[in-house]
Please model this.
Amino acid sequence: MHELLMEPGGKPHFLLGNEAIVRGALEAGVRFVAAYPGTPSSEIIERFTQLAPEAGIYTEYSVNEKVSVEVSCAAAISGVRSLCAMKHVGLNVAADAFMTLAYVGVKAGMVIVVADDPFLHSSQNEQDTRYYAKLAGVPMLEPATPEEAYRMVIEAFEISEKFKTPCLLRTTTRVNHCRGPVSIGSIPARQGFAGSFAKDPFNLVVIPAVGRKLRLTQLERLKALRAESNGSPLNFSTGRGELGIITSGVSYLHVRDAVRSMGLEDRVRILKLGFSYPQPQALIGEFLRSVKKALVVEEIEPFVEEGARLTAQTMGISTLIAGKGEGLVPREFELDPVKVKRAISTFFEIPFQEPAVTAAPQLPQRPPNLCPGCPHRATYYSVKQVFGEEAIYPTDIGCYTLGILPPLKAADFLICMGSGVSTAGGFSTVLDSPVVAFIGDSTFFHAGITGLINAVANNHRFLLVILDNGTTAMTGHQPHPGVELTPQGRIEPKVSIEKLVRGCGVNVVETVNPLQVKKTQKVLQELKANMGKTGVSVLISKSPCPLFENRILKKTKKIVFQSDGSCDDTCGKCMKELGCPAFAVDTSGEKRAVRIDENLCIGCSVCSQICDAIKPKRIS
Amino acid sequence: MGKADISLRIFFTGVGGQGTLLATRLVGEAALEENIPVLMSEIHGMAQRGGVVESSVVLGEASSPTISDGEANIVIAFEPVEAARALPKCNPKTILITGTTPVLPFTVTTGQATYPAPGALYETIALHVARLIRVDADALAAEANAKRSANVVMIGVLAGTGLLPVSQESWKGALARILPSKLVEANLRAFDAGYRFGLQSKGKPLH
Model:
């Protein structure tokens, strides 16, 4: 039995926030789950997929977040409780569906988990997704711990179903990737995922006349939701005193630590908002009246703060409110207890002893890097050999973004999923330099196809390199429509990238194995020579992610590569152009030499194709 | 003082592939066995790709899973340079336990940077913490015939120092619960090896 299907009772379980969300949703009777993986939300769909056959629920890895919201809302409209999970920027992709779904609403509960990433631990921005709740007019819950995430996902389904609207569960990395004790309840008996659909086009097909009607319903619903949040036990106050702190999400935990360690338990009241949109104005007003000054402590944007100021103005309350600002709560990056203590000290004029912090000594950096034997490195090496420094290299989101690092330096522009393809079209129109764009296989399915069609239709001139490693590697090897390697064995891909590219109207399509260096470079030379003549050409650089392949096929290493000692590092090609992390400069002997770490080398053979001194060595 | 009244923050740091997250989870599960309030936090954005992996466990009254600079009571480092990189988390009362096997970053192997001399590194660290405990976790793991369990050796050391109010039974119970059964025996040997080493540095409990 999957561990998240365990029987209730006994000690609390030590669950990851994402696991607590899965368990809570199962107890709430979720029967349909769809998601595209994205850190820090990926474990949600992973766990659901693992337990789906046992639990009798439907799960899918959707092609992107917009699709996940669309398939899930169809289930919810048909009376089947559904859930989507995505990272913050995923909701940008899904925003078109999300905004109008907020008008149409749902029949069975539908929860959209959206995970923000303050400090950009593994993201391209730190947008504050809470504004989407306000923009769309949907309810939002914000847990602080795994236990709360578990309870709130259950509550989110109830709210969603009661008010016939999708409900956001907004987390941050410190909730998704936090582990804590969770006391679980029981999961209802399996029901399958069959639904029923009642035709009702004048409420479900959003032509302008229907939209106008639904807009009014939505505004009525918001009023009712505000009343609900004012009375919700998810919004509560603790402590006593004439100073007030309003907070939400994980910031609540920082506030608790700060208040306790400053010995302010008898002076500070804390209002913790769990049901944070629509904002419980009456509750906030009452709180503001009960304190002399109120500090709003929240991560990223002044979302709660703006609401509190609006409440004060509306209700004629003169309590001084502060939040973001100089010496107060920083707007950038994650908060922690000391940052909160500093803000408390400034605003409430309470002395606070800054901890004496030791600076770390000068240390070698340890940035992430493409793994030894990663086929992306081989692709980048060959492309750079052929196109050099003058080409412009738009790139995309995945492991391969690490191609930005020297010595490869194969990344010139990136904003979002799919931007590699579309921006290449723009660059190639206004620049003389050749443009070579990179995109991974999963990202190509997610957001690259439309850009490619656009490029063909508008006669853009560039080479698109699709880095096909057969999996969504970055987020932990989730499948995509083109996978060939599965735990059940090798399959024909459901969607062939090559056929898809040809179907988009691209006439020049080549497929290479980047681990065959000479062949790959020959094809690249030909593509380069033809770039003036053709519009868009595509090179599919296909070789499986070795971590994934070894795990699936349980392959063991039979060969590694070693330098035979016949070279010193004066040529330096291996270090200066390929830069595999298995190489090391050895300065212990009389002359500097390059050695290959046998434990790190996975035997891809690429280095041996660029240097005669590197030879295979059989290992037992 | 009851177990719920303690307030301890433990910061863990290592390199992708060293098993730091399993070790961190072990501490959290053991605390749960003892009914101590606990939260654990993991940051593993690009860990698989050779980067730094940081995690934390907070126990008792401490409720924020994020450890501010200067606020770690204990630091467990699985690699010496990462121990030094964690110095901003320390204060003069911090106890720092570090593994002594360097894992060279590619910035070093490619000659862009140099790996500091271990002696000087330890001297610097020792200046800023109450106690520095150096553990050759790889050697202890190898002696225990559990070569791949250096991470569990480190947790054994933490257990042996007696800094946490967690009994041997709870440590071992947690270990048996979270590891696949075929790995339990080797990891118990690794834990014991670390535990014996930790006993030599047994200090006053932090609780």
User: Anything to note?
Assistant: Chain B has one domain: 3-136+164-179. Chain B has eight helices and six strands. The first strand of chain B starts at residue 7 and ends at 15. The domain at 3-136+164-179 of chain B is CATH 3.40.920.10 (Pyruvate-ferredoxin Oxidoreductase; domain 3).
